[in-house]
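Help: read this over?
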Amino acid sequence: MVPDDHSTGEAMADDDTPDNLTIASAPNAEQDDRMDVCSTGHRKRKRDEELQMTEQQHSLYGDDLLDYFLLSQNEQCAVRPDPPPNFIPNYTIDSDDHTALHWASSMGDIDVIRQLKRLNASATVRNVRGETPLMRAVNFTNCFEKQTFPIVFKEFFDTYECRDNTGQTVLHHAALMRSGRLDGPASSEYYLDIILNNLQEALEPSVLQQFLDSQDNNGNTALHVAAEGAAQANVRKCLRALLGRNASTHIANNEGVCVEEVIRDINLSKTREGPTQHRSSSPFAPDPQRQASFRHALTNCTTAADALHPKPASVCRSAAAATIHSRVAPLILEKFNELAKIYDEEWQEKESAEMEARRLLANTQAELANSRRHVTNIEAQLEPDEVATKTLNEANLAKHQVLSLIEYQNKQLIHQAVDDQLAQLADADGGRNNNDSEQQSDSGIGYEDHLALARELQRVLGEQRQEEMDYVEALSLVGVGDRIDRYRHLLRHCLDTKDSESLDGNLDTMIEMMEEECDVDEGDIVFKPTTEPLD
């Protein structure tokens, strides 16, 4: 065994240095790999811990924010929580993907809304149903109770055109009668009035009309939603708010139902419920049940007036009678106060409906009167048919005469130009040489050349006819009268005798000179004064 160890030691002693280095460096490489794996795992754990810390901080902030909203709604002293250091503005804080801005809008809290917007919270962020913060604001009555919706709508004004997953706008959400609202009709009318009043000030009438008539995925407009709520809850305030802004009633949804049909059904149901009442064609009359209850209570409480104002002869001698009298009298008085309040509310609703109807009638009458005045003015400017026909015939005759005259003048000028060129050729070449050249040229030109020249001549003549017609048309638009003659006389008077003879040929040059002398600041053309008097 010893010799073997010795031989092994000698063999190891005879090994080269690179092999020794390689063997020695192998554990170091494995150690480096382990260190890389450890550092990578450490960074991953650190990143996961940071994400968990961020989620934990945002969850705590969401809980604190909800507690703050709850305490502030109960009129308790509450401190508004501050966002975490690494705050993510659009981080969801509940299972419906609502952000802090959704909750702040739902609660109508202006301070939290502005704080979140300063932290770059998106006004178009959506929840799981595709609803924006503005839609969430009109889904609850907090903005109505706090009277903060005008400011909330201005903060989210740029998102009024957004639609949720069902294609509904904020107008659809505001017109929807929700079952959990005790004062739903009043809040819906409040939201609709503020939205439409602000849009009327900011948008063009055509754009506002298009937004009013926008349809969701089922083809329903906001007026469809309000009409359905009016038919179910017997509330017509939202209908009045939309119809007062000229919302279209003839648009049919995917089921083919128009708002006109729904209003007709509402009127029929009103007639069936109260056949003894005065019939009305408007769906905005007060509730017939309330009127019936008022009459019923009034007939049943005729003896209550005697109880409130007893006669001097009727005196309660027993203690039981006095006790009953003392307890019944306040109840009767309270019922009378309720009846008076109901009567005032009915009268106010009637007055509001009448004022709205009068306003619509006045606007319609004003538009009708304006249209009639416009039609009358147009009819006054029109000439009789005989005079118009005669004037048109005279104008056409004059136009043809001018066109014939211009064609004749151009023909004469062309003949004169051709004669001048022929005369020049005859003078230059001589009679005999000219005849020889003409014979040679005629003999060298074939049929195709003649045809090409004829076609070119036809094209040139066509262009000439078109230019002549354009010239006559331009003259008819410009008009010829004494003013043109006066301008010509003025220009001839300002020019020399030699230049005045070539006035027509130098008009373009004179116009360019006048444009160069035009005063840019004043916008007027300045003519150089002449010493000679004008005629």
User: Anything to note?
Assistant: The chain is about 70% helix and 0% strand. Residues 1-31, 37-42, 275-314, 520-535 have pLDDT under 50 and may be disordered.
